[in-house]
Specification:
Layout lengths: L1 H25 L12 H25 L6 H25 L4 H20 L2 H15 L1
Length: 136
Amino acid sequence: MDKALRAFAWVMGLACVAIGLFHVVAGNAAVPGEADAGPTLDSLGRFLGAVFAGYGSVWLWAARQEPVPARVVRWLAAVFLLGGVGRLLSLAVHGWPHPFQVVLTVIELVFPPIWFWLADADERAFRERTRAHAVS
């Protein structure tokens, strides 16, 4: 489980940094069906792209720690879940978005429970390795 958590953290971090930087560079063109959304949404999208790249950077930082800090994983999972809840609110208020956004919503609602479950896997494995090393 500890290796799964670390791998998941790396993949998530790299994906978020790449997606965030893509939004910074491409602006509205990065959002399916919204290339002509106007300067206000372009500005917002580029700003939030930078925030998302920062979010991914925290995942990468966590993946490099020994052990991967459970508290950080739980916070990152909670933020991601909040994003999914925000998408559900948008769906309730404005209706169905582009199908790609629906897929993202599912990802944002499915992954966090997995992270909550895996969050302390590396800390537990680290304690066991440390205990085993102290005994030998």
